[in-house]
Amino acid sequence: MSATSVQFTVAAHIMAALGFFSGQEIPSATLAESVNADPTFVRKSLSKLSKAGLISTTRGKNGSRTLTRSPGQITLLDIYRASAAPPTFAIHRYPVEKRCPISRNIKGCLSSVLGKAQNSFEKTLDRITLADVVGEIRRASR
Questions:
Q1: CA torsion 115→116→122→123, rounded to 10°?
Q2: Which pTM value belongs to this model?
Q3: Is the model's pLDDT at 3 over the cut of 70?
């Protein structure tokens, strides 16, 4: 069984925190505490978000991060792509058993289906903004 990737959800967590506290400069240590994850992993996520142009970073002792656009202008698809998370579905890499018709054909058959599922997943993410997520967090926090 392959490991589950949390790259996207950690990036979404970071962006939600920045959106929730919009306008405030938040240090990476505070974001790492919020995620409750290794600060190095959080900094790698921050670097990807910065390279994608979703956040700006100030360096130094008082370094911090802020969103480069309003939460309503950032979609979950933007965050997903910036996080460089692997595709939602992957076809196994086990060798083909040439005597088995399933083994010989399953990868080709599933490739199209999984491509459609990935496309549907990404279309859904593109319809949800960071503002939508922050709004749900605000409602749940009451």
A1: 160
A2: 0.86
A3: no
